[in-house]
TrEMBL record:
The lineage of its organism: Eukaryota, Metazoa, Chordata, Craniata, Vertebrata. Its EC number is 2.5.1.18. CDD domains: GST_C_Alpha. This is glutathione transferase. The gene is Gsta2. Residues 102-225 form the GST C-terminal domain. It comes from Crocuta crocuta (Spotted hyena).
Length: 255
């Protein structure tokens, strides 16, 4: 009887753990956590955030032993401390049925998401450009967006003949594309000129109730980095100016 009681107690604790809201550990800004926020929000999942604002707070998190590689983002969910952005996103996409219906759809979603990561990384690191680099870097982002990346997704929507990139329902790839479109429009509002299907996709996706809710003021969506938050990020992670070109060198080397 005591053994049964202990077993039931363990089952209850596991059940409570599974039911708890995911907790996101990161700095108070977008970075690599923002796509994770988007995925949870689009799935209609409420989440909590434990945000740090100083290097000392980040070091305390590291010393706690929950960060496998001593780096964030980290998400507490289902009794686990998940790290590595792609691992977190794949887990969430699978858990909340945003990862397609079969292996072929998984593969298409992965390909689309990986391409979008390259573009989003360019935009994410852009605020860390040196002043004399900014104009050149912005031109580079817009040129890549309009000649290399957006044509792929315009064609994907045309070829699929549906409202979505893969299959006939919302997936991780759609959520990522929508986020990156908004990021690109922050660089240049007219960036979708010449991409009518992407324009329709953006308008359609913004009306999905969970996504519409995340777009509203007061949500957990983070604003673009400003000068003050850039200094905070640089102090926490020991970033330096000129990170854009260093990051782009890595991306170019992967092609």
């Amino acid at each position: 009887q005591e053994s049964l009681h202990q077993s039931l107690s363990v089952d209850l604790q596991e059940s409570l753990s599974m039911a708890a809201k995911p907790k996101l550990h990161y700095f108070n800004g977008r970075g690599r956590m923002e796509s994770i926020r988007w995925l949870l929000a689009a799935a209609g999942v409420e989440f909590e955030e434990e945000l740090f604002e100083t290097c000392e707070e980040f070091e305390k998190l590291i010393q706690g032993g929950t960060l496998m590689y001593e780096q964030v983002p980290m998400v507490e969910i289902d009794g686990m401390n998940l790290v590595e952005t792609r691992a977190i996103q794949r887990y969430l996409a699978a858990k909340y049925d945003l990862y397609g219906r079969n292996l072929q759809e998984h593969a298409w979603i992965d390909m689309y998401v990986e391409g979008l990561k390259d573009l989003s990384d360019m935009i994410m690191f852009f605020p860390l450009s040196l002043p004399e680099e900014k104009e050149m870097n912005l031109e580079h982002i817009l040129e890549r967006a309009t000649t290399r990346f957006f044509p792929v997704y315009e064609k994907a929507l045309r070829d699929n003949g549906q409202d979505f990139l893969v299959g006939n329902r919302l997936s991780w790839a759609d959520i990522q594309l929508f986020e990156v479109i908004l990021m690109a429009e922050e660089c240049k509002p007219s960036v979708l000129t010449g991409f009518p299907l992407l324009q329709e996709f953006k308008a359609r996706t913004s009306c999905i109730p969970t996504i519409h809710k995340f777009l509203q003021p007061g949500s957990q969506r983070k604003p673009p980095l400003d000068e003050g938050s850039i200094e905070t990020v640089k102090n926490i992670f020991k970033f330096e100016c000129g990170m854009f070109l260093k990051n782009m060198a890595t991306i170019v080397a992967e092609y």
